[in-house]
Amino acid sequence: MPRLDLRSGSHDEVLGRVERSLGTRLDRAGAVRKRRSIGLPSEAGTWVRVEARPVAKVMGQGWNGTESAAVLRGVALPRWHQGISWADPEAGLMWRADETDYVAARPVQSGGILTEDPGLDDAWWSTLTGSLAALAGAVTTRVATPHTEPISQARVSATIGRAFAERIETTLERWAPAHADLNWANLTAPECVLLDWEDWGQAPLGLDAANLWVNSLAVPALADRVRDEFAAELGTRTGKIVMLFLCADIVTAPPDYAGALFDPARVAVEILLKDLQA
User: Fold this and answer.
1) 148 or 204, which is more confident?
2) Most-buried pick from 33, 55, 168, 261 (CB within 10 A)?
3) Quick one: fold of 106-277?
4) Confidence (pTM)
């Protein structure tokens, strides 16, 4: 099967089915296309996110993340209205569309690596920390799926083991609900709203903070702010293991792929390895 990529092709038949099912018209001209999703504003003043996943990626993991996140309280996220899903057996795909509130605030960084300080104020940080604290206190049986793969002790240990020769005890002692895809493209400003909830679920404590930190490494002052704001999670052994896990993907990638994150991640790895071996 060819690699799924919704950035090419019109997908008019899919979008037409979504319009009929949700009872609204979609603004094709305002579409935001990503590899596995298309987001569009609607005539109702809402936002509709259409996603496709291979059937194998649906089995064994949550498929209704945006819908199930609607029960969360104290978290700054778009209000969910309705959703639909259907199978496309011939293509081996499952399709899903979710209609949520339209968020006027724009992503802090819509794509690529953040290389300039976005100048976020204290109120913004307060909303983020409060939201993640409320999320961590929620109860769920969902398992987080970063990059659509379930997070597990085995996955973290294997990734770290492949990347580093040093023997590290990687037991993750603390777990809590997490967004699991918290990066600067899924956070808005000047109003702080957390977008794209399809992968949320139980994860090692500090996964969200670590993900935001590693995506801030090209802006040292911002990375320091993230560590300061989430010191309670990132200062734990579990938090440090998760930081090392995320850095592993960066330092094992070609430098031109990791870009401005490569060198600071390599420095961070040296510090983390010393801390975890102490």
Assistant:
1) 204
2) 261
3) Aminoglycoside 3'-phosphotransferase; Chain: A, domain 2 (3.90.1200)
4) 0.93
Question: What average pLDDT score do residues 3-31 get?
Answer: 92
Of residues 276, 273, 274, 248, the one with CA closest to residue 261 = 248
- Name residue 83's beta-bridge partners: 98
Q: How many CB atoms lie within 10 A of CB 101?
A: 14
Question: Domain ranges in the chain?
Answer: 12-101, 106-277
Reply yes or no on domain 12-101 having CATH 3.30.200.20: yes
What is the rounded average pLDDT of the residues 202-219?
A: 98
Instruction: State what percent of residues in the chain have pLDDT above 70.
Output: 97
Tokens of 112: 């690529």
Residues 69 and 98: their CA atoms lie apart, in Å, by: 12
DSSP alpha helices (H): ranges in the chain?
12-22, 55-58, 65-68, 122-136, 153-163, 207-214, 220-229, 231-234, 237-251, 255-258, 262-277
Is the peptide bond preceding residue 118 cis, with omega within 30 degrees of 0?
Answer: no
Helices (H), 188-236: 207-214, 220-229, 231-234
